[in-house]
């Protein structure tokens, strides 16, 4: 049974946890203990079967038949690579490419599956409105995942001017009868805080009833659980390639914002995957990597816009789950730390908790100048294009140079950030993202992912700009229209 990071007396099924997103006390849903998987067995099967085994361990009450059906529908030819998440070794670097899904970022792994799981968990007369705050990639992946899924609607909010032009275009051209998108005046944390406030707004909930609100961000365990799978998939491919022996420990480098992706890796380790360290790579918004070095989380600093917008995040929600696990389920302590974060923007963990965290995680940050130089260096040396988020990981991985094989999570397609990548790799500035895509494709002999190539021709269907205070009314109106 799941419980809350802030109240270990709470107990609910994974279906209930997935439907509601996060706990009434503001905490996140966690499984207090993990049962190890049979490593040999999970390394013997392809991605989809690995997914069934992982999900059965993390979301047991869905049952194997439902999980298998959802997995089969979620990971098929909507991914352009049969491995779903192929490992691509270039020079010394093992890139785990997570961007072969319909929206070209790793968010597809969670968001192609979550709607199918949610649907399975809904009763016939349930209606759920999904709210998603996005720093760029979650929004489109959530829209695509929930588009025209019965009994659901999806409203996505992104910071105005805070996402790449291609990311914005992806969202504003979204089709479907149950989707809406709005830009918010403010940054990602403003959008995320406003979404959290709506989820705790009892007056709004009464107004919306019987429609329930839920979340598609990585605080939802239905997002997190599917991401655990690709750590096993990566390991399997390294074994198959002869890079490692079964049982050998590997490191994973994870470009990090909300700490969802890297936390999924930690779950994989708890399920028995042999991992040495997780390298947590941040851009100049380095609250998390600083925390890993000092034990002090402090968001009282300037918000910086970088070339990796999906990581321009100051409040890293999923870190709360790690605090819960590493304090051995001390939900009173977690509640106290989170209260301190809400009140003062800062908290400090006890020394023993920090030591426990540092046993598994090491942080580092990359400045934009280093990111651009790395994109260029790898493109020049190998003809391989990294997107700016992946390049943040690359810079930190190179600097730390840990012993043993290390897998770098490639979190987005370079074609999602074509202007930054073209400027870095070729030294040319393009005002038009679509032109930059074409130039990169021909210079590096790569195909532009089909959904991105088509974007230029799609009509823009969503062009709202809201103040955060206007969001509840916008949501109420949308719920009435579509649910
Ligand atoms: C969301 C995102 C990240 C950060 O992932 P978290 O789970 O928030 O840590 C990194 N890179 C890209 C491309 C993303 O879209």
From TrEMBL:
Source domain of life: Bacteria
Enzyme Commission numbers on file: 4.2.3.1
Alphabetized Pfam families for the sequence: PALP, Thr_synth_N
GO terms for molecular function, please?
threonine synthase activity
CDD domains in UniProt: Thr-synth_2
Family annotation (InterPro entries): Thr_synth_N, Thr_synth_N_sf, Thr_synthase-like, TrpB-like_PALP, TrpB-like_PALP_sf
What UniProt keywords apply to this chain's record, in alphabetical order? Lyase, Pyridoxal phosphate
What this protein needs as a cofactor is:
pyridoxal 5'-phosphate
Q: Where is the Tryptophan synthase beta chain-like PALP domain?
A: 97-401
Where is the chain membrane-spanning?
Answer: none
Span of domain Threonine synthase N-terminal = 2-75
Query: So what family is this one in?
Result: Belongs to the threonine synthase family.
Q: Give the protein's recorded name.
A: Threonine synthase
Organism of provenance: Lacticaseibacillus baoqingensis
Per the record, the gene is: thrC
């Amino acid at each position: 049974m799941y419980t809350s990071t802030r109240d270990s007396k709470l107990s609910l099924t994974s279906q209930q946890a997935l439907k509601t997103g996060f706990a009434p006390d503001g905490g996140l849903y966690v499984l207090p203990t993990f049962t190890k998987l049979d490593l040999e067995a999970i390394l013997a099967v392809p991605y989809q079967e690995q997914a069934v085994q992982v999900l059965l361990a993390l979301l047991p009450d869905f049952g194997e038949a439902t999980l298998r059906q959802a997995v089969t529908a979620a990971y098929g030819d909507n991914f352009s690579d049969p491995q779903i998440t192929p490992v691509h070794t270039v020079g010394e670097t093992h890139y785990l490419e997570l961007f072969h899904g319909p929206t070209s970022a790793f968010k597809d792994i969670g968001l192609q599956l979550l709607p199918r799981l949610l649907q399975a968990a809904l009763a016939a007369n349930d209606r759920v409105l999904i709210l998603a705050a996005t720093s760029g990639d979650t929004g489109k992946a959530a829209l695509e995942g929930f588009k025209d899924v019965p009994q659901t609607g999806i409203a996505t909010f992104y910071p105005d001017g805070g996402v790449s032009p291609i990311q914005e275009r992806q969202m504003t051209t979204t089709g479907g009868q149950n989707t809406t998108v709005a830009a918010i005046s403010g940054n990602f944390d403003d959008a995320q805080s406003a979404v959290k406030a709506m989820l705790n707004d009892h007056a709004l909930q009464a107004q919306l009833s019987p429609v329930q609100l839920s979340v598609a961000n990585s605080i939802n365990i239905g997002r997190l659980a599917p991401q655990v799978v690709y750590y096993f998939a990566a390991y399997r491919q390294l074994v198959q390639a002869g890079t490692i022996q079964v049982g050998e420990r590997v490191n994973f480098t994870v470009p990090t914002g909300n700490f969802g992706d890297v936390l999924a890796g930690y779950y994989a380790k708890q399920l028995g995957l042999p991992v040495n360290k997780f390298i947590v790579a941040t851009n100049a918004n380095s609250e998390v990597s600083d925390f890993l070095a000092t034990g002090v989380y402090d968001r009282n600093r300037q918000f910086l816009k970088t070339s990796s917008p999906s990581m321009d995040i100051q409040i890293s929600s999923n870190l709360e789950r790690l605090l819960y696990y590493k304090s051995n389920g001390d939900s009173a302590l977690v509640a106290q730390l989170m209260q301190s974060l809400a009140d003062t923007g800062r908290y400090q963990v006890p020394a023993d908790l920090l030591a426990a965290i540092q046993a598994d995680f090491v942080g580092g940050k990359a400045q934009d100048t280093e990111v651009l130089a790395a994109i260029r260096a790898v493109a020049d040396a190998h003809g391989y294009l990294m997107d700016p988020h992946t390049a943040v990981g690359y810079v930190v991985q190179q600097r730390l140079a840990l012993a043993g094989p290390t897998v770098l999570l490639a979190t987005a397609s370079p074609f999602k950030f074509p202007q930054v990548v073209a400027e870095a790799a070729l030294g040319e500035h393009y005002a038009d993202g679509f032109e930059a895509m074409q130039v990169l494709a021909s210079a590096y002999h790569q195909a532009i992912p089909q959904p991105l190539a088509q974007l230029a021709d799609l009509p823009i269907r969503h062009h709202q700009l809201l103040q955060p205070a206007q969001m509840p009314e916008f949501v109420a109106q949308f719920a009435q229209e579509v649910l």
